[in-house]
């Protein structure tokens, strides 16, 4: 119910924007709409075609084609074929790529308020994160905050697992065990500061560059969910995986605002109505894929360590959480949402 009201309001706003953009022309501003051709949106993805977000993207294409009667579809490009996230997001901004899945920290480069959901140990459980990500109305101001100056609209946030540290040297139990290790993080200040507070040396880079950097010894390790660690073969070169459980960061489905505004109001609405289904496909596939990744990594000799002093890591990163959350009222509001969701969905 909440959703439809929100989407309706959003649609009215977008019609207005659309009209302004086409100088008052018809609402079907899309070049292909009505021409009988299908406009195929490129969806940039940095993981493999086995990942649930790939399946969600393919399904988005099928359903979008149905609901727009063939006016729009989607082709997913996996494995960073269109570039690493930090680069391809610029193409989204200029409209040459229409859709992408992106890790939350990359959005901090456009609006720092996104940081709240990327902080260590803020979500008590995946369910708490999922609860926040379905608060469409409350998230709408954040999700539309970079439309005007960056031409990017956030369509949805999804679960992207729980992140842990891994490296080629040894199991990590305490912050001291990370001392001197060079660890890859996602590209944002919060991620750099987080891993430094946890005890390591930070090295921000695209996900696709991490494997060779670890293989050649430039990096000692990284931090990620089991799925990415194993699918990108990091488990072969950094076999010590330790359950620090420091992050539950969302991935977001982004659309170029230019591409969105070029659709008719009805087609925009049809696309937005697909969001909950697409979120569900991406989220539901994750748990099964995680188990498969653990089984595969085990079969090639990876070592898991669940004897981790998470309280010590949590204490180390607390200053980052406090500084980031108390910066302004928007962030305090988002953090309140997280707290409410945590109370309703405690760690199991
Ligand atoms: C996860 C996440 C990606 C992100 C990647 C990374 O795999 O799903 O969106 O890019 O981590 O660490 O860069």
What can you see in these coordinates?
The model is unreliable at 1-33 (pLDDT under 50). By secondary structure, the protein is an alpha/beta fold. The strands form two sheets. It has a six-stranded mixed sheet. Strand 6 (182-185), helix 8 and strand 7 (201-204) form a beta-alpha-beta unit. The radius of gyration is 20 Å and the shape is globular. The protein contains 16 helices and eleven strands. Helix 1 packs antiparallel against helix 13 (265-273), helix 2 (52-67) runs antiparallel to helix 14 and helix 8 (189-198) packs antiparallel against helix 15 (310-325). The chain is 48% helix and 17% strand. The chain has helices at 2-21, 52-67, 85-94, 104-107, 126-133, 136-143, 147-150, 189-198, 210-215, 226-231, 234-237, 257-261, 265-273, 275-299, 310-325, 329-344, and strands at residues 39-44, 72-77, 99-103, 152-159, 163-167, 182-185, 201-204, 221-224, 240-247, 250-256, 303-305. It has two domains: 34-159 and 251-285, Bacterial extracellular solute-binding protein, family 7 (D-Maltodextrin-Binding Protein, domain 2, 3-Layer(aba) Sandwich), CATH 3.40.190.170; 163-248 and 296-325, 3-Layer(aba) Sandwich (D-Maltodextrin-Binding Protein, domain 2), CATH 3.40.190. 46% of the residues are buried. The structure holds alpha-D-glucopyranuronic acid. Alpha-D-glucopyranuronic acid binds at residues 46-47, 85, 101, 103, 160, 186, 207, 224, 228, 251.
